[in-house]
Amino acid sequence: MTCPVMIIAITAPAWPGIINKEDKTMANITSNNEDLLNKVKLIQPGVPIQFPTVKPGDLITAELINAIMRVVESLDKRVTTLEGASANSWAPVITGLSPSMKRIQNLLYVNGRNFSIDCVVHLSGYDYVIDQFNGSSTDKQLIFVIPLIQGVTDQGKEINLTVTNQYGSDSMIFVLYPALPTIPTGKLNVFVSKSPDVPVLEEDNEYVFVFTVNAITTLDDNYVLEPRAFVESTGVEWPAIIVDDSGTQISPPRLFINKSVPPGGTNSNVNVKVSIPSGASDTPAANLTLKVSSVLNPTGLNKKSGNYMLTVGSEPAPGQDKVIVSFASPGINASVSGDDIVITPNTKDYATLNFKAYIKDIGIYNLEARVENDPGKHWEVQSYPSIDVQIANSDVSITLYIKADSKAVATNIILKVVSNTDVSCFGETSEPIRI
């Protein structure tokens, strides 16, 4: 009878630090050695474990099989340990975050290593998950836009950031702040603060009027300046330009205003030079206005001054900053189209128009509301007779009530607010109105 031949040769890999030197297993074992157990040695790194060929007729003992199994078990332990160490070496590691001031909607740079393509970023637990990164991201840096996260105030909010892949995760806490505004908001007031010191306005002459722009805004911005001297009765415009203090035209007409905080905001002066043409005495009255509009937010942040009346042959009204009247918004049965206030005609109820008046001093102020050029009495306007201002530097809301029939023609509505004790202290605005 011929016995099968079995050859087994196992080599212990040379892995310093991985070999468990306390693991005692068989080495240099021969099946025909009677003192088998005395040949057991410690496995040494780089030293092969050899089992000589089993010859026909040799007795394969239980001791030999057990020794072989112990060697196999030891090898399995070493491989498992090595695989565990390898997995840990591929887990993501965060070394830092930039920039130093982290804001919503800004790029965040996560620096570290082992950022494989299957990495996922969690912000604040699992509330916000980022798995799409900027194209410039690498295995050492993840780049992404910080999403809109609820509950972030100007004081900041702590956010836990975790990077995860199939091998593990790492976390870091940072403080997140709100996004910086990119569009300015706020409010503007525009009014004539100084008129030319002349006894009367004359045709074929130039005059400079100083407007003050009071701004409360959230961002630095440039503002477009649009002066206009318009004769309503003829549709003719008198030349009006922006000039510096020396009288030289500013082109393009722009005004830079820094971010301005309440309550006072920032005041800036603008010089408007008006040229009254020859023959203007035939149509002597023009309305002078200045419109100021944000470059970054032209539709949301703009203001046109109230009409300042220029009358040839009359003394110009004094400029002042004690009462500033402006149109605020349309109310019931009213709307705005371009520069015009539009009233729905033939309604049972009055339309309402909302105005505002900045009033510097306390006291009683009378309200005078009227519609120009309405000989047929197709317009009707009413208001409260007066307002009692009890706090200095107040913004006062004023509502006018107005009706029109289908024959009402386009005209202007004028609101004048005048001190009960000083008739020279007043503010006035004139707004175009039609049905």
Please summarize what this structure is.
The chain is mostly beta strands and 435 residues long. The chain is 6% helix and 47% strand. It has four domains: 8-89, no CATH class; 93-177, Immunoglobulin-like; 186-311, Immunoglobulin-like (Sandwich), CATH 2.60.40; 323-434, Immunoglobulin-like (Sandwich), CATH 2.60.40.
CATH topology tier name of the largest domain = Immunoglobulin-like
Oligomer: single chain
Q: What share of the residues does DSSP label as strand, in percent?
A: over 45%
Number of domains: 4
Sheet with the most strands, sense and barrel status: 6 strands, antiparallel
The CATH class of the largest domain = Mainly Beta
How many strands? 32
Low-confidence stretches: 1-42
Count of runs of 4 or more consecutive helical residues: 1
In which range does the helix fraction lie? under 10%
CATH architecture of the largest domain: Sandwich
Structural class: mainly beta
Give the overall form: elongated
**CATH H level of the largest domain: which superfamily?**
Immunoglobulins
User: What's the Cα radius of gyration?
Assistant: 44 Å
What's the pLDDT, averaged over the residues? Answer: 83
**How far from one another are the termini?**
122 Å
